[in-house]
Amino acid sequence: MMMGREVKGEEVVNPIHLSNKLGQQWIVDQYCKYMSEKLRFIENNQKKIRAELYSGCKDAIHDGDGGENTGDLGKMGRPVILPASVTGSDRWYKSKYMDAMAICLRQGRPHLFNTMTCNPNWPEIKEELKPGQTHNDRPEVVCRVFHAKLKELMKDIKDGLFGEYAAHVYSIEFQKSGLPHAHILIWMADKEAWRKTETVDKVISAEIPDESSPIYKRVVESMLHGPCGNPEDGQRSCIQNGICRFNFPKDYQYKTEFEEDGFPRYQRRSPEDGGNTVAKFRNGKRIVYTNADVVPYSPWLLMKYDCHINTEYCHSVKSIKYVFKYINKGSDVATTRLESIGHTSSADDPSPRNEVEDFKNKMFVSSMEGAWRLQEKPIADRSPAVQALPIHLPNQQTVFFDPESTQEEMKEQLKKDDRTMLTDYFRLCRDDVGNARDLYYRDIPEHFTWESKERRWNQRKHPFKKDVPGMIGRVHYAGMKDRERFALRVLLNNTKGAMSFEHLKTLDDGSVCNTLMAACIAKNLVSDDQYISDCMSEQAHHCTNINQLRQLFVDLLFECEVVDPVKLYIEFKDAMKVDYVHQYGVATATRK
Ligand SMILES: [Zn+2]
N or C: fewer beta carbons within 10 Å in the chain? Predict the structure, then answer.
């Protein structure tokens, strides 16, 4: 490859732009260099990273990290930790997921789910291609254009395209073909309006428009699903267990109606009721599409953005869980390990976990993603801002000392760490500052700002609007084996105006429970089995290794008084299934 710049007549030519496949390789190489430098820095600065983890100012993601169980880490040798600041790491995904859940806790269910896929035929991309080049040869152009369109789309939505906007979360993924696409969740301010079919009809269509309509061509080109079947015959590979996993073709529906579970059945008129049809040729076969085959879309967005842009209504709480998991699922990865029979798994594996090494091993990057990341474009975004709120048990806010620090420095550090966001929230409630007594801990950032130098909450001078929060708080996640911290979190999420740990343990009749967990159960906030089942499902969502889930199940049986172990087993038996058992050993394959 020629390096440097070459002048051809007037035009300055960048050889990388002309190198096609070699250019793609170059981008991937540069990205890998950048990442390995970053990871090397992390490996060399573990002391500081572990300190943050120990002091509980980071979310725990594995049992035994953060919080009270840190002793295990010491026993296990020195695990190498990959912090949440590394985009794409487990901790990073976890923190994004928790942020999205915090918005959900504040705003209720999201209203719209948008998927926007980059169109390689956009004129802005085509104009930049040299003769003979495809979009894959210019990943940096594709990324710039897609990012600009996405920004414009978010601006349209924030400016009130669908009504008054309240919040959003999005994440970017890269398809196997390399093209970027965005999954966007949107919360609207007017919750009442979004329970009406008129609002749904105004925004979403699931029908083939009349031929005279300006969007006719676009719907026909990019919003029809099918035929479902064998990809080798040029059909979509969406069949799972004999049916389309997107449930196409859908049933006809004369007009939009809400089902009992709150999900709307969009208007899809049958040809007899006047619905349009369109015939397309695929591999020489004539296929007739009807309204049953239309992927729901927003006509306005389709007209403006000219790409596959799917707009759907978000319904039950169940779908929120699905969507959050889906948009935060991380890269597809399979880890396989062969172990001889008789050797029990990771639990007593003596070698310490090396998260950096694990991360490197499962890194998979396309030139498109490489270009996206090198241009420092965000892989996830949300609004409003989410402030993480640490929790700790009484006098257990852990203070980190550098072993080399002097006694003076230690004293200084102690004084500084004495007041925490949590204890200062108690102070606000005790002193009845502002409306603190009407607030949950998680609501505090909406009404107060944290002054990290003074280490205190100060009342906001300009409060936010009621339906459109400018800042959302989320209480740190607590590890499941950590019953007291877990209970503290539940109590804080259910008690307004908490004045002290004592206050949280006090029941309505004035009696004080011995532990936070006892208070939780007495207040009916967790039935014992419900709490255990919640632990399991939370872990099932996040665990990277099926053995972790099984280990947790066993631990719960031993350590907690499970009332109905069989029921718990049946609930999670699929999640704990061995994916593959080999004659010579056990291999576990997990998809994240
Ligand atoms: Zn299908």
Answer: N
Q: 223 CA to middle of ligand 1, Å?
A: 12
pLDDT in the model for residue 66: 41
pLDDT at 210 (0 to 100): 94
Mean pLDDT of the chain: 79
Other Cβ atoms closer than 10 A to 30: 15
CA of 228 to the centre of ligand 1 (A): 4
State the DSSP H helix or E strand holding residue 141, giving kind and residue range, or none if neither.
Answer: helix 139-158
- How far apart are the CA of 247 and the centre of ligand 1, in A? 7
Lowest mean pLDDT among 97-111, 401-415, 578-592: 578-592
| Dist. CA 114 → ligand 1 center (Å) | 19
462 burial via Cβ count (<10 Å: 0-12, 13-18, 19+): exposed
Spacing, Cα 109 to ligand 1 middle (Å) = 27
| Ligand 1 ion local residues (Cβ < 5 A) | 228, 238, 244, 248
- As a whole number, mean pLDDT of residues 504-517 equals 90
pTM score: 0.77
Q: Backbone phi, then psi, for 199, in 5-degree steps?
A: -65, -40
The pLDDT tens digits of the residues spanning 408-452 come to 777 776 676 678 899 999 999 999 988 899 999 998 998 999 988
If you measure from the C-alpha of residue 310 to the centroid of ligand 1, how many angstroms do you get, rounded to a whole number? Answer: 15
How big is the CA angle at 474 (ends 469 and 477), to the nearest 5 degrees? 160
**CA–CA distance, 236 with 473 (Å, rounded to integer):** 43
Crossing angle for the helix pair 565-572 and 546-559, nearest 10 degrees? 170
Cα 185 from chain centroid? 11
pLDDT tens figures, 456-485: 899 988 877 776 778 888 888 776 667 788
User: Strand 471-475 relative to strand 385-389: parallel, antiparallel, unpaired?
Assistant: parallel
Give me ligand 1 centre to Cα 491, in Å. Answer: 45
Centre of ligand 1 from the C-alpha of residue 493, in Å = 42
CA of 293 to the centre of ligand 1 (A): 9
For residue 290, how far is its CA from the centre of ligand 1 (angstroms)?
Answer: 14
Q: Report the distance separating Cα 91 and Cα 356, nearest Å.
A: 12
Task: Find the 243 Cα to ligand 1 centroid distance in Å.
Answer: 8
pLDDT at residue 71 greater than cutoff 50: no
Ligand 1 centroid vs 188 CA: distance in angstroms? 30
